[in-house]
């Protein structure tokens, strides 16, 4: 019988696919560079990470060693958390923020302080939420299932996996292409 956490992950992938499909229908809502092909860029940013995620999750089910399964499933949860928080933020920025801009004047005068605050606010949530979620929700559930796992009790290894998942996510959406 499949553990509840695996069923929850299957639902999460379904939710991510629905969000990606819905957001790809309205490319004009998202602030992308004018010289880019907006629809194709959204497909790349929204759909390609879901394909990578599904591949890793499938690989975790096909792995023979339990420790490999644990690492791959942990990676998949962290990666899915990055996708979910980034998609929700993109969805909010594309739908709610234009409505707020059209209906009300900002309470702070535009300037460098507001820009720095906005960048920190926008950039911090997709990094902080996944680690909190995975450390305090997913890891305890995996510890219940896999009591003998050395990986689940090693914070340095999990931190390395977090960095690897973040790097993979950034590569999958094309953020690091200019740096490479």
Give an account of the 3D structure.
The chain has one domain. Helices cover 76% and strands 0% of the residues. The chain has 5 helices and no strands. The protein has helices at 4-24, 38-62, 66-103, 112-145, 155-173. It starts with a helix and ends in a 7-residue tail after the last helix.
Structural class: mainly alpha
Order of H and E elements: HHHHH
The pLDDT mean sits at 81
Radius of gyration: 18 Å
Number of discrete domains = 1
N-end to C-end Cα span? 44 Å
How many extended strands?
0
How is the biggest beta sheet arranged?
none
Strand content: under 5%
Number of DSSP helical runs = 5
Question: How much helix, percentage-wise, in residues?
Answer: over 70%
Q: pLDDT below 50 for ≥5 consecutive residues: which ranges?
A: 102-108
Morphology call: globular
Spell out the blueprint of helices and strands:
Blueprint: H1 4-24, H2 38-62, H3 66-103, H4 112-145, H5 155-173
Descriptive keywords:
180 residues, mainly alpha, 5 helices
In short:
By secondary structure, this protein is an all-alpha fold. Helices cover 76% and strands 0% of the residues.
């Amino acid at each position: 019988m499949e553990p509840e956490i695996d069923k929850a992950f299957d639902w999460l992938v379904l939710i991510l696919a629905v969000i990606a499909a819905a957001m790809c229908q309205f490319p004009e809502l998202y602030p992308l560079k004018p010289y880019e092909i907006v629809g194709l860029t959204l497909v790349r940013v929204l759909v390609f990470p879901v394909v990578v995620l599904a591949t890793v999750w499938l690989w975790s089910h096909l792995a023979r060693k339990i420790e490999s399964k644990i690492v791959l499933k942990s990676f998949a949860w962290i990666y899915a958390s990055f996708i979910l928080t980034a998609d929700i933020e993109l969805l909010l920025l594309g739908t709610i923020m234009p409505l707020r801009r059209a209906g009300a004047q900002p309470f702070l005068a535009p300037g460098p302080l507001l820009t720095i605050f906005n960048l920190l606010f926008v950039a911090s949530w997709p990094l902080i939420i996944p680690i909190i979620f995975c450390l305090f929700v997913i890891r305890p559930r995996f510890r219940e299932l896999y009591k003998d796992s050395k990986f689940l009790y090693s914070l340095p290894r999990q931190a390395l996996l977090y960095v690897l998942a973040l790097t993979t996510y950034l590569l999958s959406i094309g953020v690091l292409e200019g740096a490479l």
